[in-house]
Amino acid sequence: MLIKKDQDVIRGYFEDSSNLKGGHADSVAFPEDITALSEFVKEANQNKLPITISGGGTGTTGSRIPFGGIVVSLEKFNKIIEISEGGFRAIVQAGVLVEDFKNECERKGLFYACYPTEKTAFLGGTVATNASGSRSFKYGSTRIYVERLKMVLASGEIYEIKRGQNLLTKKYSTIRLDSGQEIKIPLPAYKMPKVKNSAGYFARTGMDAIDLFIGQEGTLSIIVEMELGLTKKPPKIFSSFVFFKEYSDSWNFAAEARTLSKDKNKADGIDALSIEYFDENALKLLRQKNSAVPKDASAAIFFEQEAAGADEERSVDSWLKLISKHNAFLDNTWVAMTEKMRETFTQFRHAIPESINEIVKRNGFRKISTDIAVPESKFLDMMRCYAGALKRAGIEHAVFGHIGECHVHVNLLPRDEKELKISEEICLKFVKKAVALGGTVSAEHGIGKTRREYLEEMYGHEGILEMARIKKALDPNCVLGLDNIFPKEALGLV
Ligand SMILES: Cc1cc2nc3c(=O)[nH]c(=O)nc-3n(C[C@H](O)[C@H](O)[C@H](O)COP(=O)(O)OP(=O)(O)OC[C@H]3O[C@@H](n4cnc5c(N)ncnc54)[C@H](O)[C@@H]3O)c2cc1C
């Protein structure tokens, strides 16, 4: 197996898009097959050598950044093994790029509906973080598309699990390995919020055991192969950028579009795949890429919808009525009806997080952003809290994201230590508010190393200890993904 030790060569593995500094490791291993990986992990476990698993390195929470030990990169597990057109299933290795998978599915008339938006992420990374994207408004997050996982556990043992095969119905339910060993999983008592959620381990009485390994951030196993559910590619999708003079109009527009999309009868023909928000500062970043963004706009909504035949006209009509009702710039609304234009809009939307990450890097501090989602009834309360605190602080920021799911990312962009401290305090204030409103501290990016304090706000210290017990049941020597999700203290390591 290829193992690289030259620090100049492996330095890139000590970074992700969190801009968290100080990562270090002795070496990076590049296994090419599951047997070699299994042997390697077995030996590391015997020597109690920490292993950080590396996917595409696009994570935002420092979770693939090692603080000691070795890195295992999945980049050589890059095969799309099978795409079954009739079965609406794909078997893929963990190192396949999201973009390659999407293109290959679409070439066959199929669709990976949840589509995490960052093209250079690995599919294994998206399962390990339970990623989602703008379209999770209609299609849901990664979790519901995962049918089977093949993994290497901390012991080196290979473990394969199918959805529906093992339900954890009791406080101590069992996972049975091929070797005959039984692992008792102590199910936690904490209750997950009823919103889109990727904070800590999925846990619920009666849950499918496969769900424990989705969103585990490389702390329970190394995912090697996955079977993912697909759907038929929609014949056509149209998308639109709608601009507003008053940000409050954009919030009301999004709220009504959300309600209409959820209406089972679809009486108005409105059925969004995604409803995305951009505040004034996010628009400033967009304007640098495209000067056509209206100068007097203080907010925008991007939406997408599947279009089909006669319904298309009715849907477009209803959207136009909604745009007009909420005082948007009707004459300056951008609509993409062709595949090419739609792709341009999608890239344009994606340019915002990319621009923010560039600023974070330039400023030299770690990424300070929220990944909060709250229940729909509390969302405006949360948005008002963001707006008030950001105005008072006067620190450069940009707010954008999945308003359809009551989940926007507040990005603070501190330029010095003083602003950094204030930004951290503001984020913690947002987290406390979200928890009080019944929300989550991470709806899609996970906890990693930068949001552990937030997870404790959500589940309390006992909740963290409950997660640590699950970890120790599967990884008694605590070698996998050390420092992710909970601190070493929770594992009794210091
Ligand atoms: C511009 C930009 C936009 C983004 N937009 C979104 C978005 O819309 N939605 C969203 O959810 N995220 C988004 N992200 C975040 C990121 O793309 C996701 O978190 C993604 O799932 C990370 O995948 P990765 O392969 O890069 O993982 P990495 O960053 O390499 O790792 C992430 C975590 O997964 C673990 N891991 C990786 N591979 C495996 C494996 N095979 N087995 C076990 N554990 C593993 C790592 O140890 C680590 O804990 C965005 C990022 C960027 C830079």
CATH class designation of the domain at 80-232: Alpha Beta
Overall strand count:
22
Question: What best-fitting shape do the alpha-carbon axes yield?
Answer: globular
**Cα-to-Cα separation, first versus last residue:** 33 Å
Number of helices: 12
CATH topology of the domain at 80-232: Uridine Diphospho-n-acetylenolpyruvylglucosamine Reductase, domain 3
Please outline the major beta sheet. 7 strands, antiparallel
Instruction: Give the strand content.
Output: 15-25%
Going across the biggest sheet, name each strand in turn.
19-16-18-17-21-22-20
List low-confidence stretches: none
Bound molecules: flavin-adenine dinucleotide
Quick description:
The protein has 494 residues and is of the alpha+beta class. It has helices at residues 7-10, 34-46, 98-107, 123-129, 136-139, 247-262, 280-289, 309-325, 339-363, 379-393, 417-436, 452-474; strands spanning 2-4, 27-30, 51-54, 70-73, 80-84, 89-93, 110-111, 146-153, 158-162, 167-168, 172-176, 182-186, 207-208, 221-229, 231-232, 237-244, 272-279, 299-306, 334-336, 368-369, 397-402, 407-412. The structure holds flavin-adenine dinucleotide.
